[in-house]
Design brief:
Strand content of chain A: 15-25%
Order of helices and strands of chain A: EHEHEHEHEHEHEHEEEHEHH
Oligomer: heterodimer
Strand order of the largest sheet of chain B: 1-2-3-4-5-6-7-11
Structural class of chain A: alpha/beta
Largest sheet of chain A: 8 strands, parallel, barrel
CATH class of one domain in chain A: Alpha Beta
Structural class of chain B: alpha/beta
Helix content of chain A: 25-40%
Strand order of the largest sheet of chain A: 1-2-3-4-5-6-7-11
CATH topology of chain B: TIM Barrel
Number of helices of chain B: 9
Radius of gyration of chain A: 20 Å
CATH superfamily of chain B: Ribulose bisphosphate carboxylase, large subunit, C-terminal domain
CATH topology of one domain in chain A: TIM Barrel
Radius of gyration of chain B: 18 Å
Helix content of chain B: 25-40%
Number of helices of chain A: 10
Number of strands of chain A: 11
Number of domains of chain B: 1
CATH architecture of chain B: Alpha-Beta Barrel
Chain lengths: 327, 311
């Protein structure tokens, strides 16, 4: 039985939020400035989030606000104050990673809807159950999770399941990597007192993607065994899997991409909307083949934008600045 | 003198043998990175009773680690590992994955949990959730600074373990980077990760252990021990995984002496012998940056920052 699934798209700006909804997204996620897994230029301040939430309501969609970095204990009061403010503005849907913050927010506002972020690295059913007990009603599957595990989560965990179909897989497990901050890591406080932790994707969102630098593998005596390779951090598309994901009853199909251009995000959302709708209209007769050319054009556009950004990030990481901690 | 605990990580009988464990108060058995590590104590469950007994007879506590990234197919083994560690009389289970923590809780907490380096403890609230699920000790993520750790301990009401020496865990995956094919059929497994291998790029050096990425430089807190004592920390780890026996033995000896001096409250200074030992084993240099709020590969301090400086 093929079920409806929500299409969740990225909102890196107000313009992108509108483009995503206008092209068929059911829900859009945005990052609270300093609190999500992207750098500040792709996040929104509270006023913009309230505006985006209003737009979502006007088109019958859902706006989810990501607070999915792992902050400092010192920042917990600020987290509670900001989420209180957004709650007052009508926001009910949040994406979190820290299980302690999840419990705190759920206890404070029991009617909020919490999703456990991809940063939780949920790789088995017991993980999903843990985050359900922490307050999450939906969990994001780790990028390489197999369908058998997805099925078990759906059957046994009692939570919604979200699957990324258009993203990148990190070399290490996403959410369990500190390679970027090992090379460069700073502390930059904004006007609200939030540390943006530049260099740490887990804490502040900015990852320098050093895995995509040119690496040599060197043996114990300094001999080069292999040179000039990048660590596996590959673009990742599960468009082919969408019919199976729908059959599995996956609740949300997610497209990443806050850092991409608005036209590209709009094109991606429209593609996945059309594909999902076609599959739902005629599951038995659905074939992927006619969609491949359109998919290839999107992938090419995405890869070109990503290459340019990655080169800039690696170059930035080499600047090697260290700002003294200001707590 | 206040007490402290110095913990070593030892993956297998091969690492256990030849290591002088006398400097250590506790040993954490097994590798969290890969179930296929030869002799992995967390895999070869029949070895646990004898090894735990050996450690207890020597007056040491015995902890057993669990896989850092267990897929669904690994969970039946994890459940057996929990039972085996408890039956062997292990003093605690080191846990990195929240699902494993939940399994321990569902089994009625037959032994306490120590949350490991990959458990992503960043806040006292997360530590509190894990405490309520059975954790009595946490090792905060490498990125957490010293001043944050104090808050995690106080507000989270858990013991905090600090890495004071060794490679910093930077990443974990479930696909081996050292193999060409599936691990079940690639002839290079399980020998590949026994060899020392580094990843170098620009000014960066990392150590690869197949399914894990470690810092190239060795975390070293030797010159800062008096501060750690003043701030109330008392549990310290020397990361001995994927190192040789001399590393575990000699670094352990340095820190046993240094911590004893620091906890005695006497005048503290890094001795030339200690400095020579840590430098001898740090092939790619020393670091301690995260603890002081800078990039992990940085070294903050005035005594050991320059490999050529005297002490």
């Amino acid at each position: 039985m093929t079920a409806m699934a929500e299409l969740l798209a990225s909102g890196g700006s107000m313009e992108m939020v509108k483009a995503a909804f206008d092209n068929g997204a059911d829900a859009v996620y945005v990052g609270a400035k300093g609190w999500s897994r992207r750098r500040a230029e792709y996040e929104m301040d509270d006023a913009r989030i309230a505006e985006a939430a209003g737009y979502a309501r006007s088109v019958g969609g859902i706006l989810r606000v990501a607070f999915n970095t792992l902050p400092s204990s010192f920042e917990v009061p600020l987290f509670l104050a900001k989420t209180d403010g957004l709650y007052e503005a009508g926001v009910r849907d949040f994406i979190l990673t820290d299980p302690g913050l999840m419990m705190a927010l759920k206890n404070r506002h029991p009617d909020t809807v919490l999703h456990a972020s991809v940063g939780c690295t949920i790789i088995n059913v017991q993980d999903a159950l843990f985050y359900r007990e922490a307050g999450a009603s939906q969990v994001v599957a780790e990028c390489r999770m197999d369908k058998a595990t997805m099925r078990r989560i759906k059957e046994e965990a009692g939570v919604g399941l979200e699957v990324l179909v258009h993203a990148t897989t990190c070399y290490t497990l996403l959410g369990r990597c500190t390679m970027s901050s090992y090379t460069r890591y700073e502390h930059r406080l904004d006007a609200e007192g939030k540390d943006h932790f530049p260099g740490s994707p887990n804490r502040g969102g900015l990852c320098y993607r050093i895995c995509l630098s040119d690496w040599d593998r060197v043996g114990a005596r300094g001999e080069v065994e292999e040179s000039g390779f990048v660590l596996p951090n590959t673009a990742y598309f599960r468009a082919d899997d969408i019919p199976d994901l729908l059959d599995l009853g996956v609740d949300t199909i997610k497209i990443q991409g806050r850092e991409y251009s608005v036209p590209l995000v709009g094109e991606m959302v429209r593609f996945y909307r059309d594909l999902i709708d076609a599959c739902l209209r005629d599951r038995a007769g659905f074939r992927m083949e006619p969609w491949k050319d359109r998919m290839a054009r999107i992938v090419a556009g995405r890869d070109a934008e990503r290459r340019e950004k990655t080169a800039g990030l690696i170059s930035e990481s080499l600047a090697d600045a260290d700002t003294p901690k200001t707590h | 003198m206040q007490g402290f605990e110095l913990v070593a990580s030892v993956a297998s009988p091969g690492e256990f043998g030849g290591t002088d464990l006398s400097p250590y108060d506790a040993v954490c058995l097994g590798s969290p990175y890969c179930r296929r590590v030869e002799g992995n104590f967390a895999e070869a469950l029949d070895r646990l009773p004898e090894t735990v007994s050996l450690l207890h007879d020597a007056g040491k506590r015995a902890y057993v680690t669990t896989p850092a990234a267990p897929r669904e197919a690994d969970l039946p083994h994890v459940a057996r590992l929990v039972d085996a560690a408890a039956a062997a009389g292990a003093d605690a289970l080191e846990i990195h994955n929240m699902g494993v923590l939940r399994i321990l809780r569902e089994k009625g907490r037959p032994l306490p949990a120590h949350m490991g380096a990959y458990a992503n403890v960043y806040t006292h609230l997360a530590a509190g959730v894990m405490r309520d699920a059975g954790a009595v000790r946490v090792r905060p993520n490498a990125e957490v600074a010293l001043e944050e750790m104090g808050t995690i301990a106080r507000e989270g009401r858990v013991e905090v373990e600090l890495l004071i020496h060794g490679k910093i865990p930077l990443g974990v995956t479930d696909r081996c980077f050292l193999l060409d094919g599936p691990e079940e059929s690639d002839p290079k497994c399980p020998a590949a990760c026994r060899e020392e291998r580094w990843l170098t790029s620009r000014q960066w050096v990392l150590k690869t252990v197949g399914k894990g990425v470690l810092s190239g430089r060795d975390m070293c807190m030797l010159e800062h021990l008096p501060r750690l004592v003043r701030e109330g920390f008392r549990v310290f780890r020397v990361e001995g995984l994927y190192e040789n026996a001399a590393y575990r033995s000699e670094i352990g000896s340095v820190y046993r002496d240094a911590l004893s001096l620091a906890f005695a409250g006497e005048r503290y200074a890094v001795t030339p012998g200690w400095a020579a030992a840590v430098r001898r084993h740090a092939k790619r240099g020393l670091c301690n940056g995260y603890y002081f709020g800078t990039a992990g590969r940085k070294y903050v301090g005035t005594v050991l920052q320059n490999p050529n400086s005297g002490v």
